[in-house]
Each structure stands twice: as structure tokens, then as C-alpha cells.
Amino acid sequence: MSATSQRFIAVSKPVIGEEEIGAAVRVMRSGNVVQGPEVAAFEDEFSELVAGRHCVAVNSGTSALQLTLLALGVCSGDEVIVPSFSFAASANAVRLVGAEPVFADIEPSSFCISPDAVEAAITPRTSAIMPVHLYGQPAAMHRLTEIASRHGLAVIEDAAQAHGAALKGQPVGSFGTAGCFSFYPTKNMHALEGGMIATGDAALARKLRLLRNQGMLERYSNEIVGANMRMTDVAAAVGREQLKKLPSWTDQRRGNAAYLDAALADVIVPPVAESAGHVYHQYTIRLAGERDAMRVGLAERNVGSGVYYPTPIHRLKPFWERDQEKGRSWDLPQTDRAAAEVLSLPVHPSLSEDDLEYVAACVNALVSAR
Predict the structure, then answer these.
(1) Which of these three, 216, 241, 266, is where a domain ends?
(2) Which residues is 195 bridged to in the sheet?
(3) Which of the listed residues 241, 270, 286 is the one where a domain comes to its end?
């Protein structure tokens, strides 16, 4: 098939079916559209995905991280260890509560934060570790929670890209003090927009519910100073429909990834950690020195791709400038290498067999021609 006759294959594609549309319309017609029964039902149903933990729905994944840090009392003078190879929200949330992100390098075998680098970064000011389950791959949670326990630190899992991922059978979001999920439209499941916090601590869950709703559980009975970070019932209704479909979509993503693993030649396919249940939010290959040419070549053939993330967080302007002021620098060789080499290919569940075959053929042809 020629590139001119091939429809464009997007690297990500939000799914909004008739079920989601019907659910949204139903809620809007009810007139009960904010912090109502749909939110409560979504929290209960999502709890099954995180080993029965308490779930608190909010308006975004970033809000989930920020409110968790606030609820744990993380503030000015504290440090939170985060990977630099992630979306900026991971570190933005730390800065938004007045704390300082301390960047640790990643493991090349998983793209996730290195436990050895985390342990080396701990100081008397460290209050929490924030591992990111990047691309749908679980971080090394058993080692990270052991390190945190020895040093008396909180663990906040950034699971924005990892709905349903697991390590040795245990779901992400159930390892740490809290796990934070995003329901942005391009995630493995979405709610148009939204986030969820999962925690095994009932007192922490209650504080999170206060913080998301102006400090009150009952109207005009404000207990603490809070924010407005509520999820709408429209978003929750959409999320409930998506949650029903998540298992089959995850199976499709894994099947698509397995096809690409077998079909691609002469590229480094995504690593999967031992005993990890990867959910392939992204299917990310490595291309040393050929990444940009591959992107151009794929675009010319109507195949979308993405670089997640071309600039590590510690090199982004607001973080780099702050580090310059403090005379601080970071040595993160695996992070810099990944940022220069990674390329994500389509893996979403809307792909057909012909789409997958075409994507693999294009990648292999471009590799052969280099």
C-alpha cells in the first residue's frame, strides 16, 4: 500500500463511544452534575483496580499529585525525589506545594526511576519519593518501598500512565502511601479529564476529600483550608464507562505490543521488567542517532509517532533556572540518553491488523535504508 493511499495512523487516539456519550447526556439531563452519585460510584468501582484502596476523585492527575503532597504536609524546606525523565507534572506538583524536586536517574531497562539513584539522593530534608510508572511499566516498587520504610519516607506513585499495570501480581497504585492516576483523553482510559488518588490510609483519604472541596465534607462546614479540585459527575460517568472497557483495551495493547516486538527488526523494543504487567500506554523503542530521521520518514508515510520526552525535566526552563540560582546541577546520564533515543509508535486499541503490519513495515524499511 502506498503512503498516499494509507490513512493517517495516529500515535494515540482517544475513544469516545456511544456508551460514554449516553452517560454524559444522562448526567447532564439529571441536573446533578458536580460531586454527586456518579463520582461516588466511580470511586467505588475504581477501587477494585487498586486492591480495594480508598479512592478520591479529583479534576486532573496533576491535582491528584498536588493534593496528595499537601495532605501529607509536604511544604517549603522539604525535598521530593522524582525522575527527570517524565512529564513536567511530576515535578510541577512538588514545586506547587513549595517543596524542591530532587532528580534521580532512571534504569535503562525500564525507563523508571533507579532505586540505587533514589537511595543516593536521600538527605535529611527528603520527605517523599515519587516514582513514575512510565509508559505503563511499573517502577521497582518492592525496592523503593523498602528504601522508603528504612528512611521513614512517604511514597507517592505517579501512575498517570499505568491503569491496570502490576508487579508480581500487585496493582500499581497499591504499593505506596498513595497512588495518583490521570484520566486525560490520551490515557489508557479517560474521563474527558480527571484524576484519582488511591490510598490505604482512611485518615489520609478523608483529608484529601476535604482538600478537594474547599475544606468541607458538608456544605458550609469548613474544617480546613481547601481548594476546588472536584471531579464533575459528567467526567465520572464517562470514566465509569471507560473503566468497563479497560481490561479488553489492555489486552489489545499487549497484543499489539507483542506483534510489534516480533515484527520489528534492528531496533530496541520496549523492555519489560521481570514479573511486570506492562500496559503499554506507549510502545517506546530506542534509536541511537536515527530517531529524528525515523520520525520524518514515518510522517511521510502517514504514521504518527511521539517523543516522550525530548527534554528531561531538569533541563526545562523553570527547573534549570532554579538550579542555577542554587548552584545545583544533576548528573543523569541514562535520562539524557533516553531523551535522545526514545520514539513511541502507535499501540492503542483502535489499530487494525493492517495498521500494525503497515507500521512495522515502515519502521523496518526505514531502518534498512539508513
Answers:
(1) 241
(2) 58, 182
(3) 241
